[in-house]
Amino acid sequence: MEMSDLQIGLIVLGLLFVAGVLAFNWWQDRRARARMQVPFPEGGTDPLMAEEASARPATAKEAGRREPGLHEDEAAAPRAREERKEESDEPDPTCEVVIELHFPEPVVGKELALELERLKEASNKSYRIFARTFDQAHRVGLRGHESYGLVQVAVLMVNRNGPLTDIEWSQIWLCLQEIAEKFDATMDGPDQKKVVEKAASLDETCAALDMQLGVAIVLEPPKKSQDVMFVARSCGFVQTGNVLHLPTRGRKPPHVTLVIQGLDNPAKSDVQISRLDMLLDVPRSEPQERPFGKMLETAVRLAQKLEAQLVDDQGRPIEPGCEEAIDQQVRELYQKMQALGLPAGHPRTLRVFS
Questions:
Q1: Fold adopted by 211-352
Q2: Does the domain at residues 60-207 carry the CATH identifier 3.30.980?
Q3: I need a labelling partner for 328 at 20 to 30 A (CA). Which of 60, 128, 171, 241 fits?
Q4: Stated pTM of the model
Q5: Where is the ZipA C-terminal FtsZ-binding domain positioned along the sequence (predicted)?
């Protein structure tokens, strides 16, 4: 049966419509890919294998700094002085990957901070926010009263949960793309494939450096938690939240923590305790001459006061003199971490071993 002119016309119009939709989708896809294809910084050497050209020693202020967040408004005069002050901290290219948002008009920090909260749902990797005001002042974190023309989101590539994955990167990118579209901003960031490859390589490096040393104190018969807590405090342990640890200088992370098995809240006094675990997190601790030896001395003293047995983390009796060999291994690890740009206890190291 021959088709009428009307039928032929409708078919032609349908084909043209489909072709138009396909062309529009192709154009949208090409534009999105173009945004994502900003090249990852290339270099002649692996940043983990050599000192960075712009590296500088960490100051005491940097070593104890807090992660940036939204700052509350302060008094007018101090705030005016702060607005004129530059902040020196920058994204760390060794362990962070940066996506930039460029705003055509000033955007208030409070509004931006609310939008960026959505990033917490996109990945288990932490991120830091850096920004530049329209009068070119550099900021670490956002301040509610200021307006910004540039925001940098520095995403951590690795933590103890593993490297940044394709899925995580895509979710982060999509979240920031939606924010960019809301404010008519342009977005720049590195190529996804290079990001994922670099994250996997850094993860392999960190896995080879990760060392946690532990000893256990076995109580037979069990003792009440209030008695155990009293003895632990007499041996120098302090409580921060629900964590017992030996004190450190300033805001440094604890070198040695004490885990009381079966006690989720140290405030409870009537729980029967049969085991304590003392842990030394080597990458997150500042280098010491005898890190394991000092922990073992504390563990021996604690076990004696509790009339308990001291064993290794596998439940075997601890051999006399083993601390010398273990401390030597730790010192060798310190040297290796330093050579790879991840010194023990350094802010960068604390981030990737979080």
A1: Cell Division Protein Zipa; Chain: A, (3.30.1400)
A2: no
A3: 60
A4: 0.72
A5: 209-330
